[in-house]
């Protein structure tokens, strides 16, 4: 029996989560639990709630099962599961999504969807983050409000169903991005590079001297480099990218050692 925790960053009532919940519930030998934020927590990344306790409410679903809504972040939801919120349930895998919008390239560092799966890696639990491009095929996770989650849900359910036969490597999560429309294949791809077009725009200034700024501007573009997740989704293919948590820049360590940083202690 594979114990699956389903969460997201769009909220427990989000269509993407509910479509995926039904697809996972239809699998055999799956024990499914749902713990998700009580509202939208998009772009919260790996933020946690530690200055106050967390409210958790039971939420009934139309099939007679229940989930749990938390007033914290996606990472909080994973922590609640790992610490025993649901009696007798400890997850074997974290599935996060389906996100309303893609999470590609540099965007993953902002994504609450990816952060929830990444928290599983921190806890020694493999994870899968799933995101769906909007029907208008925007490449910006902030845009779009029409989605068809059927392909993403079916593909993710098949991946989960085969985890016993093809387990994820230790310390690895899969970042899955599904394009809109007909699927032209599946590509194992590396993260691509976003080119952000943000700008500082003054909106108004009040009598007290405070200024209101808009910081985040036009939709980012991307380098359509072959082999990247951005290129794959742009071409209509599902992009599957293995990610890990180790951020150490191994290639920079030897140079730092050669510099002899310890000598700086005597140069104050």
From TrEMBL:
<protein>
    <recommendedName>
        <fullName>5'-nucleotidase SurE</fullName>
        <ecNumber>3.1.3.5</ecNumber>
    </recommendedName>
</protein>
<feature type="binding site">
    <location>
        <position position="42"/>
    </location>
    <ligand>
        <name>a divalent metal cation</name>
    </ligand>
</feature>
<dbReference type="GO" id="GO:0000166">
    <property type="term" value="F:nucleotide binding"/>
</dbReference>
<dbReference type="InterPro" id="IPR036523">
    <property type="entry name" value="SurE-like_sf"/>
</dbReference>
<comment type="function">
    <text>Nucleotidase that shows phosphatase activity on nucleoside 5'-monophosphates.</text>
</comment>
<feature type="domain" description="Survival protein SurE-like phosphatase/nucleotidase">
    <location>
        <begin position="4"/>
        <end position="197"/>
    </location>
</feature>
<feature type="binding site">
    <location>
        <position position="9"/>
    </location>
    <ligand>
        <name>a divalent metal cation</name>
    </ligand>
</feature>
<keyword id="KW-0547">Nucleotide-binding</keyword>
<feature type="binding site">
    <location>
        <position position="10"/>
    </location>
    <ligand>
        <name>a divalent metal cation</name>
    </ligand>
</feature>
<dbReference type="InterPro" id="IPR002828">
    <property type="entry name" value="SurE-like_Pase/nucleotidase"/>
</dbReference>
<dbReference type="GO" id="GO:0004309">
    <property type="term" value="F:exopolyphosphatase activity"/>
</dbReference>
<dbReference type="GO" id="GO:0008254">
    <property type="term" value="F:3'-nucleotidase activity"/>
</dbReference>
<feature type="binding site">
    <location>
        <position position="99"/>
    </location>
    <ligand>
        <name>a divalent metal cation</name>
    </ligand>
</feature>
<dbReference type="Pfam" id="PF01975">
    <property type="entry name" value="SurE"/>
</dbReference>
<dbReference type="InterPro" id="IPR030048">
    <property type="entry name" value="SurE"/>
</dbReference>
<keyword id="KW-0378">Hydrolase</keyword>
<keyword id="KW-0963">Cytoplasm</keyword>
<dbReference type="GO" id="GO:0008253">
    <property type="term" value="F:5'-nucleotidase activity"/>
</dbReference>
<keyword id="KW-0479">Metal-binding</keyword>
<comment type="similarity">
    <text>Belongs to the SurE nucleotidase family.</text>
</comment>
<dbReference type="GO" id="GO:0005737">
    <property type="term" value="C:cytoplasm"/>
</dbReference>
<dbReference type="GO" id="GO:0046872">
    <property type="term" value="F:metal ion binding"/>
</dbReference>
